[in-house]
TrEMBL record:
GO cellular component, one term: cytoplasm
InterPro entries the UniProt entry points to: Ran_GTPase-activating, RCC1-like_dom, RCC1/BLIP-II, Reg_chr_condens
Domain of life: Bacteria
MF-aspect GO terms: guanyl-nucleotide exchange factor activity
Classification via SUPFAM superfamilies: RCC1/BLIP-II (SSF50985)
Pfam families, A to Z: RCC1, RCC1_2, WD40_RLD
Name the record gives this protein: Regulator of chromosome condensation (RCC1) repeat protein
Domain RCC1-like positions: 261-541
Region (Disordered): 32-59
Record key words, sorted: Guanine-nucleotide releasing factor, Repeat
């Protein structure tokens, strides 16, 4: 292996949820950071031991979604950060803000970290993995998670390993590639969509020299030049000019001269010594299926390493200088600011040997063998030990919202929550970039509840993705937050950072918000809606900007998704209107009808006894009078609780195994219910929002216990419960301080990892 100063010293990486991995056809052994790392040879300029600390010298870094690992020259591995699935390999599922040694592993040559699992290439060519295994991503022949290294079955000649979100691939010595784990988008490249718990070889691929894995896709660099990709392509991440996915390596990335690839989330990048090209999801979340130049090196200081996170990227130059760009709301770019950058910005750090990027944090191995990390400390990802944040570390652990013990109502949006107090005051906490906390600032975020300006008599609350409203005891509705589509009852425009009254709603008793529209329930039982009507979400059949929903005069409850709304009638019937692209109206529409919005209310099929309803962006659930639950709509993460991940259900299906349901709630891609006094959740759990260990669940799983729950409020990747005591407890992601415990830590400048 060449030293970082050698012009041949390119590092190949992959990052699971973010990743980069490549093996040079010519040269040198591979060293790596990011989701993948490899130990250099003893003469590779790795540096001396760390003196006073007495620990073996770190030789490479790797990072997963919320955890990171360091590979030492001895072959031992230490990890820190999120550990809900045992991905740190220390035999526990406890998050660690100090590095812990992976048990039973002393001969590692390279690491690959996925969303919630970790793999190591061993000196023999065998591969060991540990952590989440709900999709078979550990390759052990089972779907049983492991908190200690477990051998991948039938693999003894690997030279590289790459970890995707919940799939894994390995490059064999003969140039062949094998993959295992989740295959829902064809990311294993074996012409099926079936999960594989053991390695399966990709037919016809025998000349691979590099390997990368994104969240749901995989790419290789071939000896003949250029790249081949397969798997999900909804954002153009395969780089073939389309957004059509492939179950086999047939999508050629025509980028001659590439020396490395990187994959993260739904995007892919390739680099030469002078330029970086990317394709897939762009900075605005839109598909970009053709390569575009995003960064440049210089003639005198070429690019030798590229690392990707889902929303940010970093590169290392031959001189050791590191530069980063992309999303920076938590300081993950390391340039001392919280401002996002569209062009590479220098990291405030000296010479760097290795880089590793997680979802919301970054790490570097410095030339002096110190490891430094920056960004969001959620789960202890920055490795700060006692100096870090217990609040930011919370994933599946429950955090009590501080200074709030008399909540009477609770709602959650995308990264924020709000509650009313017995006094009628409203408090909000979490994300605030669009004024969703209503405190008048419209910037930053708040890790502790803060009063909403000018509201002292709130009786009912609602939250959309980035906006909220309160119904006042004195009459009327006041709203704040995003208003780009007129969803706050005003002309579309800039965010409204303080509560503003919506006209003509003095008789409102409840209100609900979608992404771009809102609806109010009046004392008469009629429903009035406003905002965008692009998908029929106003329900008046007129394509207007506001009006009374036709055919409804006896509604008792409202709930909105992204662009649809449902009303519960006194009879127990549920009626919905608006977008139906994922079957969220629940009327049993055929595939051809899903493209057509439903502009007036129609009944949810086979549901006449609902007692409670809750809508997610594109799915909904109902508690029935017999104590059972039913859901309908989008189901790509098992959010309907039906035991499958079928993409769409256009009529209601029963939630399996639930009886005696007393309350339920729906988040973006997950749902929770209290049944028989116990809390259960299902659907997406990538941020711990389900409150259990492991990945997504297609049937209800036991969630956090010991809570006397009065009501639930679910956001995109966090969940909260209002307790009968008046306290509020939250769990899941704490990226914006939405757990409300006051402990979120972020750093815009690098901090040394404790104990390395």
């Amino acid at each position: 292996m060449t030293t970082p100063g050698d012009s041949r010293g390119f590092k190949w990486h992959w990052l699971g949820v973010a990743g980069l991995a490549l093996a040079s056809a010519l040269a040198c052994e591979v060293s790596s950071g990011g989701r993948h790392s490899e130990r250099p040879d003893a003469d590779g300029g790795g540096g001396s031991d760390k003196g006073s600390r007495g620990a073996p010298t770190p030789s490479a870094l790797a990072a997963g979604t919320g955890h990171a690992c360091v590979l030492r020259e001895s072959g031992a591995v230490s990890c820190w950060g999120a550990n809900a699935a045992g991905q740190l390999g220390d035999g526990t599922t406890v998050d660690r803000s100090n590095p812990v040694t992976v048990q039973g592993l002393g001969d590692a040559r390279q690491l690959a970290l996925g969303r919630s699992h970790t793999c190591a290439l061993r000196a023999s060519g065998a591969v060991s993995c540990w952590g989440a295994n709900d999709r078979g991503q550990l390759g052990s022949g089972t779907e049983i998670s492991a908190s200690r290294p477990s051998a991948v079955r039938g693999l003894s000649d690997a030279k590289l390993v790459a970890a995707g979100g919940d799939h894994t691939c390995a490059l064999r010595q003969n140039g062949a590639v094998v993959c295992w784990g989740n295959n829902s988008d064809g990311q294993l490249g074996n012409l099926t969509r079936t999960t594989w718990t053991e390695p399966a070889q990709i037919r016809g691929l025998v000349d691979a020299i590099g390997l990368v894995a994104g969240e749901r896709h995989t790419c290789v660099l071939r000896q003949t030049g250029g790249g081949i990709c397969w798997g999900a392509n909804d954002k153009g991440q395969l780089g073939d000019g389309t957004t059509t996915g492939h179950e086999r390596p047939s999508s050629v990335v025509d980028m001659a001269g590439l020396i490395g690839l990187a994959a993260a989330g739904a995007r892919t990048c390739g680099f030469t010594a002078q330029s970086v090209y990317c394709w897939g999801e762009d900075d605005d979340g839109r598909p970009s299926p053709r390569p575009r130049k995003v960064a440049e090196g210089s003639q005198n200081d070429g690019i030798v390493e590229l690392e990707l996170g889902p929303e940010h990227a970093c590169l290392r130059h031959q001189s050791g200088t590191a530069r980063c760009w992309g999303q920076n709301r938590d300081g993950r770019l390391g340039d001392g600011s919280f401002d996002s950058k569209s062009r590479p910005s220098p990291v405030k750090l000296g010479s760097v040997r290795d880089l590793a990027l997680g979802e919301r944090f970054s790490c570097a191995l410095r030339a002096d063998n110190e490891v430094a990390c920056w960004g969001d400390d959620a789960g202890g990802a920055l490795g700060q030990g006692d100096a870090g944040s217990e609040g930011g570390a919370a994933r599946t652990g429950v955090q009590r919202v501080v200074n709030l013990d008399d909540a009477t109502a609770l709602v959650s949006g995308d990264g924020f929550s709000c509650a009313t107090r017995k006094t009628g005051a409203v408090l909000c906490w979490g994300r605030n970039d669009l004024g969703q906390l209503g405190d008048g600032s419209g910037d930053g975020s708040r890790a502790m509840p803060a009063p909403v300006a000018g509201v002292s008599d709130g009786v009912a609350l609602t939250a959309g993705s980035a906006q909220a409203c309160v119904v006042r005891k004195s009459g009327g509705v006041m709203c704040w937050g995003a208003n780009d589509m007129g969803q706050l009852g005003r002309s579309p425009g800039a965010p409204i950072v303080k509560p503003n009254a919506i006209p003509k709603l003095d008789d409102a008793t409840a209100v609900t918000l979608g992404d771009g529209h809102g609806c109010a329930l009046r004392r008469s039982g009629s429903v009035y809606c406003w905002g965008s009507d692009a998908e029929g979400q106003l329900g008046d059949g007129a394509g207007s900007r506001g009006g009374t929903v036709v055919q409804l005069a006896d509604a008792t409850t409202l709930s909105s998704g992204r662009a649809h709304t449902c009303a519960l009638r006194r009879s127990g019937e549920v009626m919905c209107w608006g977008a139906n692209n994922q079957g969220q109206i629940g009327n049993g529409a055929g595939a051809a009808q899903l493209k057509t919005p439903v502009q007036v209310p129609v009944s949810v099929a086979n549901l006449s006894d609902a007692a409670e309803i809750a809508m997610g962006p594109e799915h909904g659930c109902a508690r029935r009078r017999d104590g059972k639950a039913a859901c309908w709509g989008r189901n790509d993460a098992g959010q309907l609780g039906s035991g499958t991940e079928s993409s769409v259900w256009t009529s209601r299906v029963p939630v399996k195994g639930l009886a005696g349901v007393s309350t339920l709630a729906v988040g973006s891609v997950h749902a929770c219910a209290v049944a028989g006094g116990r809390l259960s959740c299902w659907g997406d759990n990538t941020a711990g929002q389900g409150g259990y260990v492991g990945g997504s669940a297609t049937i209800p799983r036991s969630s956090v216990q010991g809570l006397d729950v009065a009501s639930l409020a679910l956001g995109r990747d966090h969940s909260c419960a209002r307790l009968r005591s008046g306290e509020v407890a939250c769990w899941g992601s704490n990226e914006y301080g939405q757990l409300g415990d006051g402990g979120r830590m972020v750093s815009a400048t690098p901090l040394e990892v404790a104990g390395l």
